[in-house]
Amino acid sequence: MNQHSRPQQIPAPCIVDIGTVVNKDDIKRLLNDLCRVYYIHTLDDKVQSEGQGCVIEVFNDPKQSTLVANNNLYINIQSFDFLQLSKSEQDQACFNLVQDNRQLRLIPISRTHPERGLDKTIDTATIEAMMTEVLSAHLDVQFDDDEF
Fold first, then answer.
1. Tens of pLDDT along 61-95?
2. 33 located within any domain
3. Domain for residue 143, yes or no?
């Protein structure tokens, strides 16, 4: 087979800071890194609602809705046609989820998820209660071992 008869393979896109993302897996990968965000929901370029919230879940299911309630965001990437990456006037990353005349703009406030460890604060009373439970369980195990 000569070089001219091979089909040319198009390289995968490379998007850096600004661009349009249409692949659902790529959109999910980008949004999975978000935690606390400022969101702006617009319809026909008119702001419908805005606020702050935590991205709890990003999923891909044609039977479920995207939900924004109680300062939490559950984002179904099937609710949107594409994601437009851009920068704000303050040079912050903006994630614009677009579906027809609807847009959900997400601007990150913090970059780490609490369960990933860096952003969570636990008060002293909670730590003490956890330690008490651990020590109590440890003593129970020792007591049970001594009885046998």
1. 999 999 999 999 999 999 999 999 999 888 889 99
2. yes
3. no
3-state secondary structure the chain: CCCCCCCCCCCCCCCECEEEECCHHHHHHHHHCCCEEEEEEEECCEEEEEEEEEEEEEECCCCCCCEEECCEEEEEHHHCCEEEEEECCCCCEEEEEEECCEEEEEEECCCCCHHHCCCCCCCHHHHHHHHHHHHHHHHHHHHHHHHC
pLDDT in tens, 43-68: 999 999 999 999 999 999 999 999 99
Would 82 be classed as within a structural domain? yes
What pTM, to 2 d.p., does this model score?
A: 0.68
The answer to the question of residue 50 being in a domain is yes
